[in-house]
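Kindly go through the entry underneath: sequence plus fold tokens. Please state briefly how this chain folds according to its tokens.
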Amino acid sequence: MNLPPLLSHLPPKGPHEDLIAVIETPKGSPNKYKYKYKYEETYGAFRLNTVMPKGSFWPYDFGFIRSTVGDDGDPLDVLILMDEPAPMGCLVSIRLVGAIEAKQREQGGNWERNDRLLAISTKSHTHADIYDLDDLGSALLGEIEQFFVNYTSQRGKNFKPIGRIGAKKARKIVEKGTFDKQQKSPS
């Protein structure tokens, strides 16, 4: 019997060169999962790490791009705009529109890069005309940045946006962070 590959063995790109994201936190959820503990391959399940304070929730679907690693050692994070929330563990074909370049640090720790990729589900009707950050507008981008500042602050960390980049430069972040599971390091 041929079983589907585990989430950790998925390539970052789909058959049409779209990127593939794994949803870890659906839009509207107060729950968050940490990479090192969020997907238990042995059990084929995600592990809960944090519950946000009452009244706080994720403004859009949040996930990661498999077979990638960022400067923080975790898979690259991606915030995905789509018509309706997708369930946790769902694979979503995405189109990058840009990224929020940012630094983050643990309480008392060193600053490290922890950019947030921004994407649109390729199946989205509502956001079908969005191809770059300029299409999102500065007010929405400011709200997204503020969400990450507040979210990380609630967890005793600091998140500092340092810039915004468009789709082409965001794609280079993914290419730099993509690795082959055999190598276990970025290409």
Q: What stands out?
A: The domain at 14-173 is CATH 3.90.80.10 (Inorganic Pyrophosphatase). Helices lie at 35-38, 133-136, 138-154, 167-177. The two ends are 32 Å apart (CA to CA).
